[in-house]
Amino acid sequence: MKQQDIGKQAVLFVTLSEEELALFPEKIKHTRYCTGRVGSMNMQKVISAVETAAKRNGIIHEDLYRETHALYHAILEAIEGVTRGQLAIGDMMRTVGLRFSVVRGRPYEKEAEGEWIAVCFYGTIGAPVKGLEHETIGLGINHI
Hints:
Blueprint: H1 6-15, H2 18-21, H3 25-28, E1 32-40, H4 43-56, H5 65-82, E2 95-105, E3 116-126, E4 133-143
Antiparallel strand pairs: 1-2, 2-3, 3-4
């Protein structure tokens, strides 16, 4: 895996278990990333969970608006994948149980292209009744 593959890395970090990730530590030790979990019927809680994790883990700088803004757009793009383009959860009587990853890197060889951020969600979505959900995944990538 190339260092530039931030989307691919985000998908791997969110779908692989800790044991599976431990199989290739040399390839990921230089990657700036974080992971977390969120479950909710409230879209804002999902967004806030990712933003909080990214800030606490030093993936973005809290005091730089452009970094928070880039993360926000990557989150929205990833949520569109999870919700199949309908940016609503609770309003549509559905709930999500998601793992997420945030990866920051340089997907282009030219230094002037700058840093980018990738957000990936993987988990379940469905009616707020245990057992009636199905798998879902979404990936969003945005320039910082």
